[in-house]
Structures are given as C-alpha cells and as structure tokens.
Amino acid sequence: MKTRITEMLGIEYPIIQGGMAWVAEHNLAAAVSEAGGFGLIGGANAPGEVVRAEIRKAKELTDKPFGVNVMLLSPHADDVAKVVVEEGIKVVTTGAGNPEKYMDMWKSAGIKVIPVVASVALARRMEKYGADALVAEGTESGGHIGEQTTMTLVPQVVDAVSIPVIAAGGIGDGRGIAAAFMLGAEAVQMGTRFVVAKESIVHANYKQRVIKAKDIDSAVTGRSHGHPVRCLRNQMTREYVKLEQEGKSFEELEYLTLGTLRTAVMEGDVTNGTVMAGQIAGMISKEQTCKEMIEEMMAQASELMHWS
Ligand SMILES: Cc1cc2nc3c(=O)[nH]c(=O)nc-3n(C[C@H](O)[C@H](O)[C@H](O)COP(=O)(O)O)c2cc1C
After folding, report:
1. Whole-model pTM above 0.90?
2. What local confidence, expressed as pLDDT, does residue 267 receive?
3. Which label site among 73, 83, 158, 261 has the fewest CB atoms less than 10 Å from its CB?
C-alpha cells in the first residue's frame, strides 16, 4: 500500500497519529511508529527543552520515523522550531497559524512541512508557502476545529492543490480510512481513537469517558469568540456554553478552561476538565495496543479497497 504520503514519511501504513497536546508524548508516538504508522509528538505550549526531551525519549523506543506537531501560537514556537532541526526531526506538522517564517530553516534541514488546514483558502496559501503535504481536518475532530466537515473539505482541498492530502476528523476504523481514500486522501490522521490506546498515558477516567461516549456526546465551546474546541460534554462545557449564551467575553470565559486539558489528561478530572475528543468517540469501544488498532483498521480498509 503505497501513496505519496507513505513514501514521503517512510511508513508502511497510511495512518498518522495526530500531535495531540498532553496526549501525544513519546510513548504514544513511538508505539504508533513501531506499529508501522506515523507517530507525532505534540509540541503544544511546551518549552523547547521539554519537546527535546520527548524527542530523545521517543528515539530510545523506536528507530522508525516520527515527527513533531508545532503549535505556531505557542509562546515557545521559535524555540521548538529550532529544536526540531537540532534533533534531526524530518517531518513537522503545524497548527494554528502560518509556518512561513520557519520554512527556509526547515527546508534547508530537509524537513517536510505538513500544515493542518480547515479550509480551501488556507490549503492554497500553505501550498504557495512551500508545504509538502496538508492535513485537511474536518469539524468532527477532537480539539480545535474549523466548520467544514471532513466529507466536504477533503475532496475540495484535493481538487485545489497538487501536494498530497491527509484526511482527519471522524476517522476511527477501516471504513473511515477507505472513505477518506475515496475522497482523494493519501493517508489519514487520527486523534480520538489513539487517545484510548494502551500505550497512551491518558488517565483511565478520560479513556473510559471516550469509550462510554455516545455519538452525540461532544460539545463545542468557544464558537462565540472564534476559537471553537470540540470536547466531551460535562459540567465544564455546560457552564461554558451557558456563559457564552449570556454574551461573556473571551477573557471571562478563558478562566474556565485554563490548564483544564492537563487536569483531565493527567489527573482524570472529567467533570471540570477539558475532555477533548471527536464525534467518532461514540464508535470507540475498547482500549487496544496501537499495533492491534492499526492492523485491525488496515485489514478492514484493505478488504474494502481491494488493496492486496
Ligand atoms: C486530546 C486532543 C488534543 C489535540 N491537540 C492537538 C494539538 O495540540 N495540535 C494539533 O494540530 N491537533 C490536535 N488535535 C487534533 C488531532 O491532531 C487530530 O487531527 C484530530 O483528533 C483528528 O480527528 P479525530 O479526533 O476525529 O480522530 C487534538 C485532538 C485531541 C483529541
């Protein structure tokens, strides 16, 4: 099973694990890469030295390729951008902004740059800036989202650019992978399903909340101030949405979520924490190793797509 993405990333299967803040640390990234997919370490808002330590720990666990997600809005983005070069990382995905100012440095280090986009306009802009591929991420995703669905976004982005496209948002099994390929994607990126991987360090309460979730259990906070985030419904989301409806400002709302992804992931506070997960959570029913997940999904996709 070869596509421009599997060739570019040097991987066996066209499955990428999203660079999730707090969740995508070295154990998960290395396990996905060891299983033949592509693991990413989530840089999130972490300082450069923290990301460097994560990269080094992942290298102790796997010789296979893995990458780093650089959050461009992070106060440490400049440092993390340099750390990935110094540590010999070959693939960077970027979120929340324009990676243009790092392009020359990354390109001369031989790094492939893959921005995450939620619209055709941004996809075109990123191709112009020199992106090597794109992640087209639909609103079904967990975490920060755009408004287009994966079903509508992926084929429109595929038509708009000539670089390869990775589909993300709402993909949780082999059917989802096959569907993404039918829309023109050359790989998929998944987040929510990998949250419950055995190798994921996410607190058991969080994993159970994802496993028990129904199809309609996610909510979107932050639409009123233009920074929508999809997470599973709880006391925090109810309070947040109520205050949004009352017209509270971004500053007034922010205190509700500051640091709460960390408390959900690390301490298991699924009541007041931010339990980021996508709409596909309703279909995720068990904890498995990354290898089991990837092999199961690839077998299903291969049968549907007649990949031999
Ligand atoms: C807990 C969580 C945290 C996330 N954090 C980030 C992040 O820091 N940077 C990023 O580019 N994407 C982030 N994402 C999005 C994922 O990388 C991925 O694109 C998305 O989860 C795909 O959709 P799915 O959840 O339906 O599989 C996050 C997703 C989740 C569930």
Report:
1. yes
2. 97
3. 73
Determine the residue of 45, 68, 94, 141 to mutate for testing ligand 1's pocket, defined as the one with the most ligand atoms within 8 A of the Cβ atom. Answer: 141
The verdict on the CB of residue 28 being under 6 Å from ligand 1 is no
Residues 6+ apart with CB under 8 A from 248: none
Q: Considering its fold, how many domains does the chain have in total? A: 2
Ranges in the chain, pLDDT < 50? none
**How many A from CA of 19 to the centre of ligand 1?**
6
Q: Which domain holds residue 228?
A: 214-276
Please give the pLDDT value at position 11.
Answer: 98
Q: Is residue 207 part of a domain?
A: no
Residue nearest to atom 3 of ligand 1 (CA): 20
Would residue 208 count as lying in a domain?
A: no
